[in-house]
Amino acid sequence: MKEKLRLCIVGVLLCLVGVVASHVCYGQTKVVVDVNTLWYLGDENELHREKYFAYHNTGNDVEAQEFKSTYDVVEGRRFWGPFSHAKGQTQEVGEYPNPKSNTDNTVRAVTRYISTEHPYNAYVDGLDPVSAGEWAAEYYKNWVGDSDRPMYFEPMNEPFVHASEFYDGGWNIAENVRIKKGMSQMYGEIGKSIHETPELANMKVIGYSAAWPSMELDGFGHWGENMKSFMDIAGEHMDALSTHLYDGINVEGQNTRRSGSNSEAILDLIESYSFAKWGEVKPHAISEYGGIEDGYGDDYSDIASVQTVKSINQILFNLLNRDDRIEVSIPFITGKATWHITEENNYQPYGSVLWKPTNIGEPTVEGWEYTPRVTFYEIWKDVSGKRVDVTSDNFDIQTVAFLDENVLYVGLNNLSDGSEEVNLNFLAGLPTTAEVRHRSIKIYADKAHEYKDEVLAELPENISMIGGQTSMLVIKLGEAVDQFEHTITTRRYYNNRVVEGIAANTPIFYQFKDVKLGEGRAQLNFGIGRKHDRSKKPEILINGIKVDVPDNWKGYDQADREDFFGLIEVPFSCDLLVAGQNIVSLSFPDGGGQVSSVVLQTTLDNASLASDEISLSPEVMNLGVGDEVELKLNLGSSSSEEVAWSSSNEAVASVTGDGMVTTLGEGRSIISARTASGLIAYSSVYVTAEVLSSQSSLDDAGWVLYPNPTEGEDVTVRFTQEVRIDLVEVLDMTGQLLYVQEVDRVLKTINVPLSQLSGSSTLLFVRVRTDNGVLRTKVFSK
Questions:
Q1: Separation of alpha carbons 148 and 93, rounded Å
Q2: In the annotation, is 66 catalytic?
Q3: 117, 158, 293, 327: which is the annotated catalytic residue?
Q4: How many domains, in total, are found in the chain?
Q5: Rounded to two decimals, what is the model's pTM?
Q6: Burial annotation 568-582 (CB, 10 A radius, 16+ → b, else e)
Q7: CA neighbor of 116 nearest in space, from 316, 283, 328, 273
Q8: Higher pLDDT, 639 or 386
Q9: What average pLDDT does the structure give for the chain?
Q10: CATH number at residue 751
Q11: Quick check: is 280 catalytic?
Q12: Are 614 and 600 within one domain?
């Protein structure tokens, strides 16, 4: 198992001061809840239960009605649609009934569930995708009523793993790829036709229903052949991208866990490619997720049934914490599945059911009772409200917190296989508590689970959690909290690079534009696919400043996977971010594998964000030590207000009460101007020693940069003698830092990868810092 080192981030729990330092420590997990701070993920703050609490069924019998009412659960997914209907009418896949004449142009109502179909009812080799799309739109417009018109249409369930069933002659990679492309074209035409039908404006098309998202296999060839190819062909016409996430083997693949860092890396890669391709992040539709239990025999057992609840909870915490990018999610908990209760199956219930017969093993069902899967809905019963701030200093302890007027729900989940002691800190205290309940579920591999819902005498300071345990604290407060002292927002910044190969000691650069500055916390999320003997700890520079990379990540060590594929989260200080463009580099000590995605994430106090009403000029300054520059503050309509000036790093730059900046040492600092009414403007200051050392044996004749001008390709700096190079930087005309490479080696030549700087200005400055001084030259990029 991976070493359980925890990052204890000093100040990360205080949303107003940001991350100011870090160190590694062992000990108790600390979870901090702040009911006085409202937390937005993008534009989302309220918990929309219908996005998360469904079941994989659309039944409406007595038991189903009582279940949905008791647990506030919606219908999830149904196997039926236009192609199954057409096959029943024409007896041929790909042959469709004639359109109906209908003059009703009103927008059709929909019912919230996903409709999907088995591939053998929808697809055949040689199918005309345009006709399929037109028929799907015709069917949902004119052939069904509101209850049979779904909000979401997912044309096929897990189609790509069935691709080999649509050609003859045994397994053939080229044929497999061809069929997948044909299926993708069908999806694209269905989405296009439904979107072009005004009467179906309430419907959304999702796809492709990825059963086996092992993106990293074959050097991410699996990603390229499957999800990436689907996005390239059909993604433009999808309202959400659907994926199935399972712990265990789903149809085929390795016996592995998706929960934790692996599922995080999968979803981040899809989001990053979505941004790179369309400039926006299309949401996820997780149309199935859970766990696939193995080793419990063919007959039903409660011990086997409950295993999935652990996986469902672990994946759910992941989804809840990316709420602004989730369209719909459905845990794989089915209805009664009476089709499975047959003599052939020894009259046993299907393993994934919510209800089982009271007389298992007999041909005639006498009655129904819940399976242990109902505990998933028990522990989340009534959870609702507005998201409030909650943090954990242990990647393996997942957290959520929601406040519904006078009821606070605090959810905890232990991703680790081992026990964890969790210390709870309610920042600034809570109003008087009227009642505290602790719901918990402990699941064991070889004995009955334990579900408890108990009233506690007082608010607990600590909770002991076994591996895989989920806990929900339900805290009734003596009074409602309707005023919040702070509001924070999590923003994610993407770039145009995905699945980049790793070469030893060769930095990979990522540019993040339009990053908002403010006070709070920040982290860099990078996904990697590598062999297990390769490093998972690159050197990371954020705008040229090295940050600590943790030894830990969410979930297990993935040792039973062929490769490690997971997301590693790196907390860092918000002070490292600058106005304008931010540059991040990753450099590994060894080669092999790929960086799948890199995402910059901030959670900032909204009151600390730069205002559109005032501004500082210049926004970015590149200065030498000892320089003085007077910042110009445009106050707009706030010209009569008093202004407070400050520097984030007084050792680098100081600022007077009238905006005069004096540089004192190398480094960077953020100068802020705040009006009495709370409006803020920022300016970033870079300070370097620009003058050649008086002892320098290197002058302008001792080095050359070529080619110059460049056609956008890389350039090389060549010296006439060996020189110890400390740092290579590229700046634009405003002094904005575009590229930083920490070298610290004796070399005669150094490559500068200008080709990585997409969209850069035509005039750039290359700066090489050596032990003999700082060299600076212009390079023209056409």
A1: 21
A2: no
A3: 158
A4: 5
A5: 0.88
A6: bbbbbbbbbbbbbbb
A7: 328
A8: 386
A9: 90
A10: 2.60.40.3080
A11: no
A12: no
